[in-house]
Design a protein that fits this description.
The chain is mostly beta strands and 348 residues long. It contains one helix and 26 strands. The strands form seven sheets. A four-stranded antiparallel sheet has the order 1-26-25-24, with no helix packed on it. It has a four-stranded antiparallel sheet with strand order 2-3-4-5, with no helix packed on it. A four-stranded antiparallel sheet has the order 6-7-8-9, with no helix packed on it. A hairpin with a 5-residue loop joins strand 4 and strand 5. It is globular and about 55 Å long.
């Protein structure tokens, strides 16, 4: 982006932010968050002991085949298992509340490429099934309500329900990085993130995930050093920074099957998954060191300030937090889900 285009993009963004905030726009810093400075403060570990509440999965357990991610919804931890093409909602005690999906393209079927899951204020769970190019709406009891098939659904990397009957998708091929959709998938509007340069990144570099609690949500790119926090569709006045991050991996273009494919030279994440609860954001740290995917860093929701870190008892692939319990996915060597609670040493 040249300097004139950069200024025009910044002006457009500030105007959009002012309109969405209903007043003066926050101070938006035009910066490079591919490899920006870390959050203030050095990593500080709380001294805790971990209580294992339960573990599911293993060699003889057929509950999980190849789980891709775990998300927090208001009803509990929700797992997408790409191997079984299904969602699994768990109770706090580890019992299965319901399952939804099987392989296929029918009303109650899912592809392997389910990217994200979110829950609206009325309790409806929406699944972004990118492989089938659609949104699937599910009742709180696990019953399908409708399937939204719309040519306007962009190819995206994350989905949230910011409020009302709207959805917001982080788009990879849309008119802007953040597209606002109806539940039927129709495009209602588009907006930028509070980092103007994000929209100019190659699609592979914009890969990321969401975390949501009520109307609060964040989008965190898996690579680089930034996250964006929103209340509904109103961006908060900061861009979050990780206390430790990896340098943004270089993009590499290769020939495959007669096509040119752009990929990343090293796809180890900086922020691998995250969760919001209360006034805190919990991020599973990636990075390069010996603690990769074995540390949860905690940040303040209000301003993104780093608070402290928790060292997990083992390396995990995905994490969420619900009612004070951490739910983690890992292979050992077979897929497992573990529920953990942390106690300060002084509380023993």
């Amino acid at each position: 982006m040249n300097r004139q285009m950069h200024r025009m993009g910044r002006l457009l963004l500030v105007t959009m932010l002012a309109a969405s905030c209903g007043g003066e726009a926050p101070d938006v810093e035009v910066a490079n968050y591919w490899d920006g400075p870390a959050a203030d403060g050095e990593r500080a570990y709380l001294e805790v002991v971990w209580d294992t509440l339960w573990i599911l999965g293993g060699e003889t357990d057929t509950l999980l085949y190849s789980p891709a991610f775990i998300r927090r919804i208001e009803d509990g931890p929700l797992v997408f298992d790409r191997g079984a093409h299904r969602l699994v909602l768990l109770e706090a005690d580890g019992r299965v509340a319901w399952t939804f999906g099987r392989e296929g393209e029918g009303p109650k079927e899912l592809s392997r490429d389910v990217v994200d899951v979110t829950q609206a204020p009325d309790g409806t769970i929406t699944v972004y099934d990118r492989g089938n190019g659609r949104l699937v709406h599910i009742r709180r009891d696990g019953g399908a309500t409708e399937v939204a098939l719309s040519p306007s659904i962009p190819r995206g990397t994350a989905l949230v329900a910011p409020g009302g009957d709207t959805l917001a998708m982080v788009a990879l091929n849309g008119t802007a990085p953040l597209e606002v959709l109806s539940r039927g998938g129709e495009l209602l509007g588009a907006m930028d993130f509070p980092w103007v340069g994000f929209g100019s990144l190659p699609a592979v570099a914009r890969s990321g995930s969401s975390a949501q609690a009520g109307s609060r949500w964040i989008f965190f790119p898996h690579y680089g050093n930034a996250w964006f926090a929103y209340e509904g569709l109103r961006p908060l006045g900061y861009v979050g920074r990780l206390v430790e991050h990896r340098s943004f991996p270089a993009t590499v273009t290769v020939e495959q099957g007669g096509q040119r494919i752009t990929t990343l030279s090293d796809a180890r994440c900086s922020a691998c998954s995250a969760s919001i609860e209360g006034d805190s954001i919990f991020v599973l740290h990636g990075g390069d060191g010996e603690d990769w995917q074995a540390v949860i860093d905690v940040y303040a929701w209000e301003d993104g300030a780093y608070q402290h870190s928790l060292r997990l008892p083992r390396r995990v692939d995905s994490m969420t937090r619900h009612d004070g319990t951490y739910y983690v996915l890992f292979d050992d060597p077979h897929p497992r889900i573990m529920a953990l609670r942390a106690r300060r040493v002084s509380e023993r």
